[in-house]
Recover the amino acids of this structure.
């Protein structure tokens, strides 16, 4: 799936560059922006490269419905599902509930992969090309958009149109 991050689908504090593939935020509080394409079926994979990581912020990546809250971290409402990650560990978050703490975090240069399988209603994450944790969320349905949240201590670049990782395809057979 090819998409660009859409500034019309983001908080006003979110700033886009590099043909809308690079995301920054002008606020110290987390803000949300969505990709410009929603999906309701198929298996999709995209990646986020952490270009800047200062201090120990908690960037989050995942998916959301179009009407998700843009004023706080992804996963704090019932309309978004995310993995948020610091320098040493991560958690899955939905409806402001944290689950499945996993060791392993991000630094500048880390790559977070997001695998959305709408045919099975599943969301999985990767860090640096390795599956990260168990299946994060099940039961996803409807039209869902790629989603990102960050503050002014993070810059991320989004890569889309990528092939689904072969280890996921093997595990579904």
């Amino acid at each position: 799936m090819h998409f660009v991050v859409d500034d019309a689908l983001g908080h006003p504090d979110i700033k886009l560059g590099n043909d809308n593939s690079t995301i920054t935020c002008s606020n110290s509080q987390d803000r949300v922006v969505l990709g410009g394409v929603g999906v309701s079926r198929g298996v999709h994979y995209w990646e986020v490269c952490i270009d800047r990581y200062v201090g120990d912020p908690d960037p989050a990546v995942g998916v959301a419905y179009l009407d998700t809250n843009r004023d706080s971290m992804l996963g704090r409402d019932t309309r978004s599902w995310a993995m948020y990650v610091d320098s040493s560990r991560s958690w899955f978050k939905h409806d402001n509930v944290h689950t499945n703490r996993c060791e392993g975090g991000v630094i500048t240069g880390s790559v977070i992969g997001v695998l959305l399988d709408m045919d099975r209603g599943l969301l999985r994450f990767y860090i640096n090309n390795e599956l990260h944790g168990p299946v994060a969320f099940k039961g996803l349905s409807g039209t869902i958009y790629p989603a990102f949240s960050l503050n002014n201590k993070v810059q991320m670049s989004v890569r889309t149109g990528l092939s689904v990782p072969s280890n996921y395809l093997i595990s579904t057979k």
